[in-house]
Design a protein that fits this description.
mainly alpha
Length: 289
């Protein structure tokens, strides 16, 4: 029996019978604030398949976190509670990494907090796209992370976005916490994780997640500047503080980029006498025939 597809929900106030494109490449009628909620459809099985692929691939890295956390001196209970309640990989790795380096717990928590602030901005976007009932929003907020946001925003409409967000969040949450437990238990079984070099697992996974996101020149410049700042201040500042200093890379690069753009625009302005070449009439070309 052929698998059915479900049309996406119509935007509030949209005219009945309005045209909509089919499939992934179909047209989309924007809803409130330009949110695509109509037109275009996608098989539920395709959304679930994509969401499961992301959830499983990233969820397995919870094993590295469990190992890293145990190597940093956290107990099994502390490691598991972090994954259950914090549930944002970059912040968790930053926290245990700073603690492993001998950093102050408050400083380590501050660095993890600043890394997690981005999820608040994801939530602003997803609240419009998903339009979940008020009762469900506090629970859904716990799953607002990089992966669920990417999967939801990649969908053609609201229905598929909700499915993608839910399946990715559920799969990743369950698998991340399970592999965290297994990683922490495994680390306790093998003893000193530093002797096995497993202390490098966290940074390696973090870089593997970060590298594909650095697509533009600006993003790569920010990442490179952050590395230079972090490594440069590592020998002279307490553990965890270099991470906060490295966060200054973003405003520094953006400031320099803005100044360069303004300078380029200034150089391209017409002369002070007001007779710009673009305002002068162009003589008709001679006919040499």
């Amino acid at each position: 029996m052929a698998e059915t597809t479900h049309p996406e929900e119509k935007a509030p106030g949209s005219a009945p019978g309005s045209p909509s494109g089919g499939g992934r490449g179909g047209g989309r009628a924007p809803g409130a604030a330009g949110i695509p909620v109509a037109g275009g459809s996608k098989r539920d099985s395709a959304v679930v398949r994509d969401a499961l692929a992301v959830g499983i691939a990233v969820g397995l890295s919870g094993f590295a976190f469990g190992v890293t956390s145990a190597g940093a001196g956290l107990s099994l209970a502390q490691t598991c509670v972090l994954s259950l309640l914090v549930f944002t990989g970059a912040s968790q790795f930053a926290l245990v990494g700073a603690l492993a380096a001998g950093g102050n717990p408050l400083t380590a928590a501050a660095g993890a907090f600043f890394l997690g602030v981005r999820n608040a901005f994801y939530g602003l976007r997803l609240s419009q796209l998903l339009a979940l009932p008020r009762a469900a929003r506090p629970f859904a907020a716990h799953w607002v992370i990089d992966e669920t946001t990417v999967v939801a925003l990649a969908q053609p409409g609201r229905r598929s976005a909700r499915i993608g967000f839910t399946v990715t969040g559920a799969t990743l949450y369950v698998l991340w916490n399970l592999t965290t437990l297994l990683g922490a238990l495994g680390a306790e079984a093998i003893g000193d994780t530093n002797a096995w070099g497993l202390d490098a697992a966290g940074p390696a996974v973090f870089l593997a997640l970060l590298a594909p996101m650095l697509r533009s020149t600006t993003e790569r410049a920010v990442a490179g500047t952050a590395v230079v700042l972090g490594l440069g201040f590592l020998p002279v500042l307490p553990g965890g503080v270099p991470v906060l200093v490295a966060a200054l890379a973003a405003p520094a690069v953006l400031c320099l980029q803005g100044r360069r753009i303004h300078r380029t625009e200034a150089e391209g302005r017409p002369p002070a006498n007001g007779h710009a070449d673009r305002h002068e009439p162009h003589a008709a070309p001679e006919d040499n025939r």
